[in-house]
Specification:
Length: about 300
């Protein structure tokens, strides 16, 4: 039994509605239901009575609710106490992120959880290309980078990189496009298409990867339009101006007329990395990195359960 199981249980008990509780916890309803059932199996008792319309606490559930609330309150009090000792009750953390990172479930959940756990820490957030993030970390004007590393990027001995999630790449195109009816596409299918990409000075690792994939398929992408923001690229593709290849997180951008299609190449994916200085021992930095690992692990476990 973990503290998160108790938080899940208390939220469902307070809402008496799995969908509302899942929304409040920022997780999917099926994984939440599975976690509650697993908790009931571990305890050997039913905590809820379920019907098509309502959810009720059982007698055991009502007793367990009081205990769970007390355990969570004690845990929060202990956390605040050690945070004060470790210097986590104040300060500033400077975080930069690549353009598609805020669209990922990982970044959204990490920021929410970090603010809840360390409410007195100021998070200074900025959007920045991956190349500039590496420079800023080296220059000590940045504490944490959430970036995508180019395959041919020169090594930087003073920085530490770790993969948080590995995102699939998807093709973005207009719903009336001749390829839109296909469930998946190969990069070779796009040989004669007009591409929409970021400008070269943005320095995105994704665009470099796309160009290399195109080269291996025997062509160079014909770029007809450039845009600095991923949301703009999706909107332009939805208008029929061309096609784009972007990280899967852009699926959350729901614009009329847009379609997202998977790429079939085995290497059609791009990792989102956490970058920090190797010699940075700041408790704020270490806590944020640990939070990223924690959330990434939860997302991976949820994905495996869904599979």
């Amino acid at each position: 039994m973990e503290l998160r199981h108790l938080r899940y249980f208390v939220t469902v008990a307070e809402e008496l509605h799995f969908s509302r509780a899942a929304e409040k916890l920022n997780i999917g309803q099926p994984p939440l239901s599975m976690q509650i059932r697993a908790l009931e199996e571990e305890l050997g008792v039913a905590l809820f009575e379920r019907s098509r319309r309502r959810v009720f606490l059982t007698a055991a559930g009502r007793t367990f609710l009081a205990r769970a609330r007390q355990i969570l309150a004690d845990a929060d009090a202990a956390r605040r106490e050690v945070q004060q000792i470790a210097g986590l009750d104040a300060g500033e953390l400077r975080i930069a992120f690549t353009t598609s990172a805020p669209m990922t479930n990982l970044m959204k959940r990490v920021l929410t959880a970090y603010r809840q756990r360390y409410p007195r820490v100021t998070l200074t957030l900025s959007e920045s290309p991956s190349e500039r993030q590496r420079d800023a970390l080296t220059e000590r004007t940045l504490d944490i980078g959430l970036l995508r590393q180019a395959e041919d990027a020169p090594p930087m001995s003073g920085l530490h990189f770790e993969t948080l999630i590995d995102e699939a790449l998807v093709v973005v195109l207009h719903q009336g496009h001749a390829l839109a009816h296909r469930e998946s596409l190969s990069i070779a299918d796009l040989a004669n298409e007009a591409f929409i990409m970021h400008p070269p000075d943005v320095g995105t690792a994704v665009d470099g990867k796309i160009r290399r994939m195109c080269e291996r398929a025997g062509f160079a992408p014909r770029v007809v339009q450039e845009a600095r923001e991923s949301t703009t690229i999706v909107a332009l593709a939805a208008s029929g101006l061309g096609v784009a290849v972007l990280p899967e997180a852009v699926r959350c951008i729901q614009i009329e007329g847009v379609r997202f299609r998977a790429l079939s190449e085995p290497d059609a994916h791009t990792p989102l990395l956490l970058a920090k200085r190797r010699d940075d021992t700041s408790p704020l930095v270490q806590a944020f990195a640990a939070m990223c690992r924690e959330v990434a692990g939860q997302l991976d476990a949820t994905s495996q359960q869904a599979d």
